[in-house]
């Protein structure tokens, strides 16, 4: 199996979610199923079916998280420097609009574009890998061609 790169922060978030699901969510849904069973006929018991559906989702997510955590390759960006690599926090300026954006290049599991966490497999991240401060980057995005200049690279 292929290792899954992620930052220490992303790894800790996944571990916290897994702990929450196992220690809080799973016992809660088991209690809800037991209560619903006490109400009698299960064939027409909406509470029971809802709780079973939630249990199925929780068990699936636990299995998914355990798989990802087992394959995690935790990379500490603080140990890196130089050109853009996984974990870099990159400030870019759009050469057309002069709009500045800052993204951190992270693993697929922790990516969240609204929070400034850019998936390593995204077109922008792939175009940035290996670039230096001052370099110009051409990116083919679903919205068309974009040109960015790399203003700053930070590893924290």
TrEMBL record:
Pfam families: GreA_GreB, GreA_GreB_N. PROSITE patterns: GREAB_1. GO terms for molecular function: DNA binding; RNA polymerase binding; translation elongation factor activity. GO terms for biological process: DNA-templated transcription elongation; regulation of DNA-templated transcription elongation. Keywords: DNA-binding, Elongation factor, Protein biosynthesis, Transcription, Transcription regulation. The keyword Lipid biosynthesis does not apply. This is Transcription elongation factor GreA. The lineage of its organism: Bacteria, Pseudomonadati, Pseudomonadota, Alphaproteobacteria, Rhodobacterales.
């Amino acid at each position: 199996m292929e290792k899954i790169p992620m930052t220490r922060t992303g790894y800790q978030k996944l571990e916290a979610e897994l702990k929450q699901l196992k220690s809080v969510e799973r016992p809660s849904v088991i209690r809800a199923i037991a209560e619903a069973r006490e109400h009698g006929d299960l064939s027409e018991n909406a509470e029971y079916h809802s709780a079973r559906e939630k249990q199925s989702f929780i068990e699936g997510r636990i299995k998914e998280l355990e798989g990802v955590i087992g394959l995690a390759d935790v990379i500490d960006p603080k140990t890196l420097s130089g050109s853009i690599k996984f974990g870099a926090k990159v400030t870019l300026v759009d050469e057309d609009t002069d709009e500045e954006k800052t993204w951190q290049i992270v693993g697929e599991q922790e990516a969240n574009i609204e929070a400034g966490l850019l998936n390593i497999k995204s077109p922008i991240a792939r175009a940035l890998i290996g670039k230096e401060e001052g370099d110009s980057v051409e990116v083919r995005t679903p919205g068309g061609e974009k040109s960015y200049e790399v203003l700053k690279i930070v590893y924290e």
